[in-house]
UniProtKB/TrEMBL annotation:
PANTHER family, sorted: HTH-TYPE TRANSCRIPTIONAL REGULATOR CYNR (PTHR30346:SF28), TRANSCRIPTIONAL DUAL REGULATOR HCAR-RELATED (PTHR30346)
Name assigned to this protein: LysR family transcriptional regulator
One MF term in the entry's GO annotations: DNA binding
GO cellular component, one term: protein-DNA complex
Amino acid sequence: MELRQLEYFVAVVEEASFTKAAARLHVAQPGVSAQIRRLERKLGQELLDRSGRLVRVTEVGAAVLPYARAALAAITDTRLVVDELTGLVRGHVAVGMVPSCGGFSLPALLAGFHEEHPSVEITLSEANSEELVHSLRAGRLDAAFIALSGGDVPVGLATHVMVDEPLVATVSPGDPLATRGTITLDDIRDRALISLPPGTGMRKSLDAACAEAGLTPRISFEAGNPGILAELASRGLGVAILPQSLVRSHPARLCAIPFSYPELRGQVALGWRVDGPVSPAARAFVDRVRSTTRQPDTVGAGTV
């Protein structure tokens, strides 16, 4: 029985898919299937039910799963102890990011960390905040740049705010609202709104503010890329809700109108797990990012 066979088995169970498990492990799918078949032959029992669209664990597989996880955790802990005692920073750091990760240079942060720790492999993936939070809690990510709503930090995570700025109503220069100094949510009650999709921090801020004001936002356009939202607004297709810094970078094409009440704010923060083993490489990455700003860390008591 080999450790990689246990690792592949756990990954397939967690992903409910050979394809997704192979992508997560950065190996070819046939290799994953072959290794798990060898594990099943050694144990004399099938661990996975492959008959449906999703791969499911069998009764025997469910009994084996906690022992497989414990074995992998023991190996990880052993490596962590050795690295701690020798002062080595090596291994792998899995980082996540939201699409609207603006206000600072993530490539510069990653490049700076790589220069300091060339033996550490860094991987980067993109998803919305809800998905990133789930991946952090599940241990699939070591750290992630997530969008927060109203300072609401997810349970089980600690965060370090990187960007905190107003969200503004954004229109084309010819829009009737373009000459306004400030507006309220009621002023755009009947307007077509352009917003990030549900599961994002900015959308949660908008939805929460509208709920408090007793109105239902009329979302006509959704896109995960803030640049697309800005382009839609510049062409007069509606009112986009965007970070103030993004709008100010296009002064000839976009007009930003602050909300007088309630104030909408957008935050991007680095998040990491409070509990559970954290590798020296992951800790080194978090420490480097935290050193770039003087904001205090926050431990989560809310949800995303």
